[in-house]
Amino acid sequence: MRPHVAAADPARLQSFLAFDFGLRRIGVASGTRLLGAAEPRGTIRGGDFDAIAALIDAWRPDALVIGVPRHPDGAPHEMTARAQGFGRRLSGRYHLPVFEVDERYTSVEAEAQGARDVDAAAAALILEQFFREHP
Fold first, then answer.
1. Which partner from 14, 21, 79, 114 sits 20 to 30 angstroms from 39, CA to CA?
2. Sign of torsion over alpha carbons 17, 18, 22, 26
3. What is the pLDDT of residue 38?
4. Could you tell me the sign of the dihedral formed by the alpha carbons of 86, 92, 95, 98, in that order?
5. What rounded mean pLDDT belongs to the chain?
């Protein structure tokens, strides 16, 4: 986990939007440190920064969290770099801290839980993992 903007202490931040990045779809979740839980908020089209801007305007998060996929052994792959690039674009456009979370298996876990919207449920799992890693 590294923020894409100047040293933000994740423990001091309270409200978050999380993204399960994909080229075609991006799952979205919101959550607060107070509750330590996340709620799926739906899925938007990949690359739809107008929709992301509307979400940021509506939710006014203190920071953003993105899931960064990796191979099972932790090695990066093509989507790792794309997700990290997405994080840099978010940081540059919205001037909010952006934190990365290793998101191996979140979609599989969301499917196993019977989620209707797997991408949004995966985003919620990503955010809950962030809360566990940064109490």
1. 79
2. negative
3. 97
4. positive
5. 91
Displacement of CA 82 from its chain's centroid (Å) = 13
What are the residues whose beta carbons fall under 8 Å from the beta carbon of 51, sequence distance 6 or more?
A: 44, 45
Mean pLDDT of the 111-125 span: 94
Residue 38: beta bridge partners?
31
* Chain position carrying tokens 């920071």: 63
The CA-atom distances, in angstroms, between 112 and each of 15, 71, 86 are 27, 20, 27
Residue with tokens 């739809």: 48
Question: How many angstroms separate the CA atoms of 115 and 23, rounded?
Answer: 20
Helix axes of 49-59 and 78-94: crossing angle, nearest 10 degrees? 50
Alpha helices in the chain (DSSP H): 49-59, 78-94, 106-112, 118-133
Consecutive H or E run containing 98: strand 98-102
Residue 76, both tokens:
């990066």
